[in-house]
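Entry for the shared binder. Reason: the reviewer on the internal report wants the predicted structure included alongside the sequence.
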Amino acid sequence: MIALLRASGGLAMKTLCLALFCSAMIAGGAVAQSSTATPRPGPDSDQNAPLPGVGTLTEGEARTRLQADGYTSVDELKDDGKGVWTGKAMHHGQRVTVSIDHAGTISRSQ
């Protein structure tokens, strides 16, 4: 087949390469359009509430981000299976419950 394409003066080879390239671009575009949108809270929900997003923060990363945001004595961190870590920590002298989502958004409650 390649010998036949070469014998035709290269035009057929260029056409074949162009067809393969176009097919790859179309297939790549279809994959790129798959939805990876992050769910957003509705108008009646807490706008600072953590959002689900599986597998983007490890426990160590969650702990480090909480500490960088001023939380100390971070413990009891648990992953809810949806990418939201919840635990206990000290913040401005008070023991609080903290949550951090896959994007690093932190929320706390007493």
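Summary line for the report: Residues 30-42 have pLDDT under 50 and may be disordered.
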